[in-house]
Amino acid sequence: MKKYRLIFAMLICLPVLSAWAGQWTYDSGSAELSHDTSGWVLAASRNGTNLTVTGVSQSPDTPSALPLSDLIPGYALVSIGDWAFYDCTSLDFVTIPGSVTHIGDGTFGSCTSLATVHIPDSVTSIGDSAFSYCSTLISVIIPDSVTSIGSYAFWDCSVLASVTIGNSVTNIGDSAFWDCSALTSVLFTGDAPAFGFEAFASTPATIYYLPGSTGWSTTFGGRPTLLWNPTIQHDASFGFAPDGFCFNIYGTANIPVIVEACTNLSCCVWTPLLTNSLDSSGALYFTDSSSTGHPARFYRIVWP
Q1: How many domains does the chain have?
Q2: 171, 193, 227 — which closes off a domain?
Q3: What are the beta bridge partners of residue 239?
Q4: N or C terminus: which one in the chain shows less Cβ crowding within 10 Å?
Q5: Domain that holds residue 267
Q6: Rg of the Cα atoms in the chain
Q7: Closest by alpha carbon to 97, among 115, 74, 116, 72?
Q8: Which pTM was predicted?
Q9: 8 pLDDT exceeds 50?
């Protein structure tokens, strides 16, 4: 008999990151970091073995990834200073290393080619205007380590559509997401933080929050809120039907969900099967038409 098991979790899924090919070398005489394969040369200040990037000395001719997470033998990058990459149009992708604790004011402001940034769970603060005017930035996950998001941090990120904000954020500054005209979804994974003037002004965002969190009302920062609480029902529809394995999902009306499946929990390669929203009554019927082609099948619901 085939086995079909159900796993339900409220998950924020991070992309799998590729390893970079090179490494950095720090020259204390010139106070520069040079990367051996990418063409980036960065200005950096030093305090013992700790480094802070302060600017760009040389960048590639075409938009490219910044391999900040590559090794710096003998040193650790702990901070990215104020305005370090401001108006750096050569930058389209950056993975910040897990040694960094602070992203400064204006650090990536007006990086108009920056489409992807990975912020590690070592960062505790994001400075004022840190990502303002990043006009190609699509989505951001702010990890649980971050406690504050500065004023104007994501001001006028015109294609930013989705933001996840971790459970340690206690303060969001003035106009932090002002005029993010494509921002439709913001998920908070913790309690409602304090927020500044017009933090979400001129955005179409719906604010989502999780069960068990506190301080939420029907609006937040002038935007409507919804409890994100999809639940799989073990009702009469749960199980096999002629068209595949089926179940109902109930929760708050109109909340978005993704249903994923995998065949082996030891390798955990999850495949999205459905991206949709619960209907106006708070229900969604799911059918996995390919379920009969697998010896075992596991399911989970994740945030989009």
Answers
A1: 2
A2: 227
A3: 246
A4: N
A5: 230-302
A6: 22
A7: 72
A8: 0.89
A9: no
